[in-house]
From TrEMBL:
Residues 69-218 form the Reverse transcriptase domain. Signal peptide: none annotated. Pfam families: RVT_1. This is Reverse transcriptase domain-containing protein. PANTHER family: REVERSE TRANSCRIPTASE DOMAIN-CONTAINING PROTEIN, RIBONUCLEASE H.
């Protein structure tokens, strides 16, 4: 299971005072009191517009995401906003379903945050370090969509309506939400282990002087 996977470990998170952050998950604040009305005016079913080959690719992705708990079927009457969804090829091979959340994003309150970059990595990097890079597959999807937000993250395909259980890539608050969530875990690791650790995007970098110790720690 990938979708909202962090919720599976809520008992463990309670011990490190992280349970509230995990359960809040991906929630959003509206830009203004009028945002609900503006989005309601855009409430209409948006049908998949790709060709038959792309539709079959979408079939497969939906099947996989249902099995992984990333999405779920939703009753049409509950949906407050449909989003355009399409398929792209990933650079390393394979396919990815993309949700175009631009109409929703225009009505979400923006929240500034700073991400780690190469300069931050160089600050903790030491000569002759051994490094290990962890790529968190479907990283954003591990964070749960909570509250009313899931009603605004719907899409339809072949007459069936779906919504997100795991946070999608297309929503504007996703990078900040994921970074805030993963940082708590990283701080916990730093307090318990000698490994130097830093996250950027959906990767986590581990650094240590000794290779054997690094392999043991991770």
């Amino acid at each position: 299971m990938i979708g909202a996977r962090l919720l599976l470990y809520s008992k463990a998170y309670e011990k490190i005072n992280m349970d509230k952050t995990i359960r809040i998950g991906c929630c959003a604040k509206r830009k203004s009191q009028e945002s609900r009305v503006i989005l309601a005016q855009q409430r209409r079913v948006i049908y998949f517009s790709g060709n038959e080959e792309q539709a079959e690719q979408m079939d497969q992705l939906i099947k996989e995401e249902l099995e992984q708990g990333i999405i779920k079927v939703m009753n049409q009457q509950e949906i407050l906003l449909w989003n355009r969804t399409f398929v792209i090829k990933k650079p390393g091979g394979g396919l990815r379903r993309i949700m175009d959340c631009r109409p929703l994003n225009t009505q979400l309150k923006s929240q500034h945050f700073t991400t780690n970059d190469l300069s931050k990595v160089l600050e903790i990097w030491k000569q002759n370090d051994w490094a290990s890079l962890m790529d968190i597959k479907s990283a954003f999807n591990h964070v749960a969509v909570t509250g009313e937000l899931e009603k605004y993250l719907a899409f339809t395909h072949r007459g069936v309506h779906y919504t997100q259980v795991g946070m999608p890539f297309g929503i504007s608050i996703a990078p900040r939400t994921f970074a805030k969530t993963i940082q708590i875990l990283i701080d916990r690791v730093r307090s318990k282990s000698p490994v130097r650790i830093i996250n950027f995007a959906d990767d986590i970098l581990f650094l240590m002087k000794e290779r054997e110790q690094l392999e043991k720690e991770i």
